[in-house]
Amino acid sequence: MGIESLFHLNRYTAGTKTDKHRHDYAELLYVSDGSLIQYVNGNPVHMKKGDVCFVGSGCVHQELTGDENTFVIRLEISDEITDAVISNKMADKQAVDYINELVKILKNSGYIHFCYKDDYDNELKDMITAIINECGVSDAASVYMCQGLILRILWRLGTSYEYAQSRFIRKKINWLLHQEITDFIEDNMKDVTIEMLVENFGYQEDYFNRFLKSHTGMTFTEYLQDCRLKKSAILLKEDSMDVDEIIKKVGYRNKGYFYRIFTEKYNMTPAKFRKYIKEKEL
Question: CA angle 66-69-72, nearest 5°?
Fold first, then answer.
């Protein structure tokens, strides 16, 4: 992956209108300052400071700036770069699934418009600035650094930004976010809190209760309890730990409370559950 032409910087005066153009690569357009309207296949996309528009390869687009000294950063995301990012060891399965989904969306709709949920996202700007710095160095390590940064940028957009797209597209990306949130809860069930979700994903507390309710039918507290009880049942089947150890491992301190909720879910105590599983296997 060559990085010499990975990014472009453009500063416009108010009212500047570019010619219609298209590229043989996808373009990630970030408004660092000012505002503009991006026309993609004739559809106007109103962008403010901090917004990102991901335009698919081959799509006809042009820009009309609205403010003085509008400053735009453009990243070229070619198929070669996308393939390299996906095959990067930093990319886990969910990241690969997410990027593949973005590629499908770009082919179908032509663009994705990302808007930060709060006022401004300094973290995203720092990632883009880091790419520019790496391109300035442009040595062998810079290639891999840029791949990792692009992966982080795309994941940041998918998990911390709103996107003004069709219901189908929102459903697809929401499914990927659902997988990421539930995996995080399950991986950290011993001590996870809703504050940890806020810190990791950038949404407000109420969002997680509403999001989980719509996908699982449970609030955060209910979903966490369900995960802990299912995990405790798996551990009881393995027969390698006593019940007190299992209670601590899944995140409970009150033995009486655990016995009560476990019995409510499985209609038997943990000890009877273990005995029942052994007899069933025999």
Answer: 80
Order of strands, sheet of 161-163, starting from the edge strand that comes earlier in the sequence: 7-12, 70-77, 26-33, 52-55, 111-116, 161-163
Statement to judge: residues 180 and 161 lie in one domain: no
**25-80-146-148 Cα dihedral, nearest 10 degrees:** 110
CATH code, 196:
1.10.10.60
Instruction: Give the contacts of 100 (CB within 8 A, at least 6 positions apart).
Output: 86
pLDDT, tens digit (0-9, with 9 covering 90-100), for 111-157:
889 888 777 888 899 999 998 888 877 677 888 888 888 888 888 88
Supply the pTM of this predicted model: 0.61
Residue 210 tokens read as 């509403």
Q: Give the CATH number, domain containing residue 106.
A: 2.60.120.10
